[in-house]
Amino acid sequence: MQNKGAIITLAIALTVVSAYQLSFSVATWTVKKAAREYADGDLVKEAEYLDSIASLPKEEWSYLGNTFKECQKKELNLGLDLKGGMNVTLEVATEDVLRALSNHSQDKSFNDAIALAKEMQKSSQADFLTLFGRAFEQVSPNGQLSAIFGTVELRDRINFNTTNEQVLRVLSEEVDVAIENAFNILRTRIDRFGVVQPNITQLSTKGRILIELPGQKDPQRVRELLQGTANLGFWETYENSEIINYLMMANETLAQIQEDLNKDDSPAVEQIEEAVSDTTSAEDALLSLIDSTAASTDYESLSRDEFNLQNPLFAVLSPNVSSTGEPMASCMVGLALAKDTAKVNSYLNMNQIRSIFPRDVKFLWSQNPYPYVDGEPYYELHAIKVNTRDGRAPLDGGAVTSARPSTNAISGSITVDMSMNAEGAKTWARMTRENVGRCIAVVLDGYVRSYPRVASEITGGNTEISGGFTLEEATDLANILKSGKMPAPARIVSDTIVGPTLGQEAVRSGMISFIGSFFVILLFMVFYYSKSAGTIADIALLANVFFTFGVLASLGAVLTLPGIAGIVLSLAMSIDANVLIFERIREELRSGKGIRLAISDGYKNAYSAIIDSNITTLLTGVVLYAFGTGPIKGFATTLVIGILVSLFAAIFITRLIYEHKLKNNRDIDFSIPITANFLKNVNFDFIKFRKYAYAISAAIVLIGTVSLFTRGLSLGLDFKGGRTYIVRFDEAVSTSDVAENLENVFDEMPQVVTFGDDNQVKITTTYRIDESGVDGEVESLLYQGLKPMLGDNVSEDRFLSDYRVSSETIGPTIAADIKIKAAWSVGFALVIMFLYIFIRFRNWQYGLGAVAALAHDAFMIIGAFSLFHGLLPFSMEVDQSFIAAILTTVGYSVNDTVVIFDRIREYRPMYRKRPLKDLLNRAINDTLSRTIVTSLTTLMVVLVIFFFGGTTIQGFMFALVVGVISGVYSTVFVATALVYDTTKREHDGEKAIETKKGSK
Predict the structure, then answer these.
(1) What confidence score (pLDDT) does residue 277 get?
(2) Between the chain's N and C termini, which has fewer beta carbons within 10 Å?
(3) For residues 828 and 208, what is the distance between their CA atoms, to the nearest angstrom?
């Protein structure tokens, strides 16, 4: 064995490094176990215990010179699906950056180009700035961007002679700076938030930022912290008494529109009727306030539906008036339920209604619910006065120099104290002086937080923001203001929440499936290849697992449930390498060679097949990593690491053990009597039956195609966008009852399916998916809809922490991107497979046969998911995991193909005069034992994970089951058969030439 010393040195180094890195995990897990025992199920006590250990200096607690907090940073990271927590993808709005760079230009071509770029973005992979450039060229072919962006701030880089192409380059640089600033600000906020092991990464898609917060239990607080732009504004306001008459006129105008057009089947009427026929108006006490403002109609004699039809606006907005009909002194002009705020907005934005109000009025909702109404939450509508030329607040957060949470000395309420710079102090003094006796609205990120009435002029630049803050909210707001104003809003385009309960179950099911499949492999190898050879393979497997976890810990990678599946799959690949070596050694022994020479030649002859088969799977892993996100990246990471480690363990560690045994003259067996002659001397004519196989494949493809056109596929959230909630009840529930209850609050029928046990459901809805910042409202509506099924003692907070075990939100933009990436990943993987096989075997027919077989396997999986979704008792949604399963099947299936092709390549120069049919049949038959053994072990592993890995991964594993079975079939009856049909004439020609040469 060559380079034996170097291999031993590398093995020792890997062992030491892995042990060192994993020891930190052991140290932290020991402390966490003590914390759980101390807390006895109390999560608050457990967190306090861990916090107390984390704050200890090295003198009181240390491991290898590291504090507990430092050890946590070095431990093996568990993903959110195993640990619980929150995964958020934010998108920095390039549109807002462009508007800011243009000084909020009102140029028609500019705004039309922005609107067109937003439409183009729905079906394009290009970044927004590129689309904006194309859109501007369409909207204004002769227009000059320099006229729009030649502002004071950019005049050194953009002048009248700057071309559009040059302007776009400058804008690209400015957008990159804005994104980088947003990234740094978000990182600062997360650091101050105090999460252990947070991950914040800029994604390849321009402007997108991924944030992972393990163990985070307050998602709404996280959303507000991350999406907050520190866009703080102080606005002058209209008094309620100044707006109430306009509201009455708007209500009458809406009613008149309906009356004038009620005989027409027009969109305007449909919009109004739909809005008022499915609304929840205010409670009777609030409704009576509206009644008191009417002079000519006896509203008491009207039914609720009649009142709603005659008063479209007041059906969803309760005016802020007293019981006698007098407007209350405030800038608050009305109240609406959370679910009705969108309808109020649509009414007030209608052209006929907007023209009724003063041009400088702007309506904004309150951040917090109105505190004086019980039951469902109402939100306040405020009338803001926009009296600046650019439409921005007269005083904003840019003037803030410091901020801190505080307590009001008189009321005892939580506030935020802040100081302003000289310019801000001057503006604040002017605003308060000019608005004595009126309200000034404090607006944060588009929502009114408070609206104090000015008693006198405030000088000095020091002021206090009130707004019903909790201490956490005040602390977060102060941190946002201190960390800086975001250059543009960062909108959440997708988020995933995994509760701690689901995380614990995932750990349990993941460990059961991992240990179970691991022992299945260990026992099978000992059974099939004898105790001596099987034990050596098992030692290599143990080393493989140890090194894989060590490398993961060293790289700071995250272990997810799909990641565990990736490790298990890499173990199956490791077994494949051992099987290839063992089968080759058995062939050499059957040919009469001694044990030492048989082992040497067995390894030598197996190398090419091992390397080719593993490289193809490795390439699949790279494609998965490049195109996947979240859990799929975790799967790809562990798969790639596992394959590299398995190659080292299967080839070199086993060889070292054999060398040691041979040196000490130990007996080594590679079979037991039962398995010694398994598939020995088999001589089946596979090529003869290829046409029957073509017919069978064609029939299956036809059935699958018909199913795709009739039943279609169950698209997951990744591909269509929407919101998904997994909710666990105390008792079994009916999915139809859940759907009907939620239809009442969501205004649409959600999709509800049983997820695992009959007391757990998966709820999918597209309700308000196009709107940002409404996740908290949607969760409140979810609770309201399910409340009758939860019991009397379940509060909203308890529902969100205990009953909602996970949730996921994916916006339509990111869903479109995922679909495009999925298509590219599958296509790219097939192209890579073709090119690699074409290069390695120097024959395009081999590449064609392999890719045809892989496409066949992919379609088998797609057809199975189309045929059986809704019929089998587990989720069969087409999502990123489904694409990962197809790509994994591609990587695995090509292994079988490469092994047979490798044997064909070996036999062709040896048996030039044999008919091609005989040569191919011999290659298939001689590798049949390896094909059956490898496929059987892989299938056993996949089935163990399928049954014990948990509901979240069953669909993924079902796809792999179909893929493994189809892969064995397609390797023989598609790939090899196509090679025969496409090279037969060429081979026969070569054979004829050889025969002529021999006759001479």
Answers:
(1) 40
(2) C
(3) 23
Per-residue exposure over 76-109, b if at least 16 CB sit within 10 Å of its own CB, e if not: bbbbbbbbbbbbbbbbbbbbbbbbebbeebeeeb
494 inside domain: no
Of 125, 92, 354, nearest to 247 by C-alpha is 354
269 has a pLDDT exceeding 50: no
Question: Helices (DSSP H) in 651-714: which residue ranges?
Answer: 654-663, 690-710
Enumerate the β-bridge partners of residue 558.
Answer: 77
459 and 545 inside one domain: no
- Distance between CA atoms of residues 135 and 363, nearest Å: 31
407-451 per-position pLDDT tens digit:
887 888 888 888 888 888 999 899 999 999 899 998 877 888 888
CB 714 within 8 A of CB 878: yes
- Which secondary structure element, helix H or strand E, spans residue 728, and what is its range? strand 722-728
The answer to whether 569 and 961 have CB atoms below 8 angstroms apart is: no
Owning domain of residue 802: 722-810
Does residue 398 register a pLDDT over 80?
no
Instruction: Measure the CA–CA gap between 380 and 282, rounded to whole angstroms.
Output: 13
Least confident of 223-227, 798-802, 914-918, 995-999: 995-999
Min mean pLDDT across 164-178, 701-715, 743-757 is at: 743-757
Tokens, residue 633: 């990246």
Residues 696 and 737 in one domain: no
Cβ-proximal residues to 978 (8 Å cutoff; 6+ apart), any chain = 845, 848, 849, 852, 853
CATH code for position 990: 1.20.1640.10
> What's the mean per-residue pLDDT of the chain?
81
Q: How confident is the model at residue 288 (pLDDT cuts 50, 70, 90)?
A: very low
Residue whose token pair is 């009724």 = 356
Q: What are the tokens at 646?
A: 């398995």
Q: 465, 463, 489: which is closest to 475 by C-alpha?
A: 465
- Identify whether 792 is part of a domain: yes
Which pLDDT does position 383 carry in this prediction? 95
Q: Which residues contact 249 (CB under 8 A, 6 or more apart)?
A: 356
Phi-psi region of 950 (alpha: psi -120 to 50; beta: other; left: phi over 0): left
Torsion-angle region of 807 (φ positive above 0: left; ψ -120 to 50: alpha; else: beta): beta
Phi and psi at residue 877, to the nearest 5°? -80, 145
Domain count, the chain: 5
